[in-house]
Every structure is written in C-alpha cells, then in structure tokens.
Amino acid sequence: MTSKRNRTFSPATRIAQALRFIDEETGAVVPAIQPAATYARDENYETRKPYWYRRDGNQTTAHAEAIIAELESAAESLLFASGMSAATAVIDQLPAGAHVVVPRVMYHGVLAQFQKYDALKRLSVSYYAAGDLVELEEAMRQGETRLVWVETPNNPEWEVTDIAAAAKIAHNAGALLLTDCTGTPPCSTRALDFGADISFHSATKYLNGHSDITAGVLSVRETGALWDDICMVRKLHGTVLHSFDAWLLIRGMRTLFLRVEKATRNALAVARHFEHHPRLEKVLYPGLPSHPGHAVAQRQTGGQFGGMLSIIVKGSKQTAIDVTRYCELFYPATSLGGVESLIEHRMTVSGPGFPVHPRLLRLSIGIEDADDLIYDLEQALTRANGG
Known about the structure:
Low-confidence stretches: none
Order of helices and strands: HHEHEHEHEHEEEHHHEHEHEHEH
CATH class of the largest domain: Alpha Beta
Number of strands: 11
Strand content: 15-25%
Number of domains: 2
Number of helices: 13
Strand order of the largest sheet: 1-7-6-5-4-2-3
CATH topology of the largest domain: Aspartate Aminotransferase, domain 2
Oligomer: single chain
Distance between the termini: 62 Å
Radius of gyration: 22 Å
Structural class: alpha/beta
Helix content: 25-40%
Mean pLDDT: 95
C-alpha cells in the first residue's frame, strides 16, 4: 500500500480542500476574507510585504491565485476584476503598432477591442478562421507578429484549435501564444501543458460557477519582463479582483471538478438527443464524434468537453428567438458556466456586425436533471413552430 506521506494528491483533492487550507490561529477549514484597502507600515516605517495598498492585492485574492496556478501548472496566476480587464492587460502591454493574429469569430468583447485598436493604428491585426491552422500560419509575419490569440473551443460555434500545433506556429514566428479556454477550464484543459505561453479564463464562468461574480485570470508558464508589465498594467488600472469576490471564487472552485463533470454529462446527453432533430439544422458540440474537432478536443480535454453547445434552429430568426422565450427551465440570460442552464440568441446579444448565424442559440448546460433540460427544449421548439 502506498504510504500517505509519499503520495502526491490529485488536483481534484487539492482544489476541493482549497490547497489543504487550515487557519493557523483558529483551525478553520474555510479561508477568511481580508477586506483591507491599506496596510500599516512597521515600527521602522517599512512596508510589511507583500502588501501595502489594495491595488497590489491581498491575502484572499492571493489564495485564489495560488489555487488557479496549481490547476494550470503555472508559474503564477493573476486575478482581475473581469475577464475583459484581464484581456486588456495583455493587449495594453503590447508595443505600439505590434502585429497580432486573432480569430475572425471569438468572444465579441475582446474581438471589438482588437478591431478598435486596429482602426486606431494602435495595433496591426490579422485574422484567421478558428481552428484552421493553415490560415493561422498564413496570417503570421515572421519576426513581426508579437501575439497569437487562440480561443478553444471557439465561442459560439465551438470550433476546436490544436493548442500544441498553434504554439509551434506562433513560436516559429517569434510570437507568444495566448489561449482562451474559458469553455474548458483547467480541470479539463491545461493549455500551458500544451505549449501556450499565457492562459486566459473568464473566471466569471466555470471557475466560479455560481453566476455571482465577475473575474478574469491570466496564468503563465514562465515569469519575466512580460509578466512584470502585465502586473504593472493591473496595478495602474486598479483592476485587481476584490477580496469578497476572490472568496466567492475560492468557494466556487472547490466544486469545479464535480460541476464540470456533471455539466459535460448533461451537455452530451442534450447534444445526442437533438443531433438529428427534425426542427434543428445543426448541433454544434465538440463532444459529438461527428464534430470535426472531436479528436483534438478529446485529446485536449480527456473527454471533459464542457457544458457549452449551440444549436441552429430551422425556420426564421424569430423562430430561434421564440425558442428562448418559450423555455420554462433554461434562463434566457447571457454568460456561461454556472450551475443553472442558460439559453441566448447570440446575434441579439452580440449586436450588429458580429459574424454569427442568425438562427444560432447558445446553450450553457448546467447541473440540473438532463431529462428535464431535454423536455424543456422539446416543448420550446414545438411552441416556436406553432405546435
């Protein structure tokens, strides 16, 4: 029998115990919240490291960062007040005129920021079709491209990009690779292990899992000048994640493995049921063997494909919107990765100009009973078609 003393405990065990947290003074097994905005200096008027003011973080936020760093196998992780502020920290440290390569379709907020910076000549942006490594390589500029942005699976059609192959393409051109794997959190996909330089997550989503905070996180394989610059951007912008939100994030992450496992099972059941449904044109889910990125997704997630899928409804744009209106169990709300199931008409939410199918509905599958979710979609589809 393996000695407990010599055993390396699994990430699922370590995260469930918040890295084996025990308060040294009280023995509490739940971390406390440290809300301080400022910190007193010592008797010699020296700062009591590592904190002196709220914009540098605090103990609660640092604890959440340590949990994510272990999940990601990262040198360090850094939490921000939102996913957009984390993305902005990376974008803003790029030198003026830097060339970046991003997907044509990706999370609409980040895409809009790249488009704005390109129009202002702040950055030079080239685009590729998500998951298409040939187009990605063609978009590179040897010695000029500074950053490649990969989102996998890609929101909202869930194309899959081979992270290891994308890393090779980026590194061969002298660029860094950032991956957004928000749809498959690090209990499923650890992008740094596949060669990514920076891992990005909207921690609002699966990492927290309860739809009660906004947060973003960056993790790196190696620290250095780039990481120092990103830390400085966070400090100057004042976008450190607040302590109460960090505490909620710690609480949420303790059930991450269970939630993602259940959401994946539910999503697969929903996708299989509706794959050849007469009222649907297509089901988009990497967990289906018919999905063109299934093999790569299987390799990168170990079968934990996550709870995100999209459906393209037959009929008109209004038919698709009506499905969201007639759902009795799915919430017609934006976001993803929570314990509750959500449905949204993506074109309405993304706004004009975003390249998305007019009849696409994005589903975030939660941890409810799968049969109840299937029933709800069936009755909504029936009502939307006049049945």
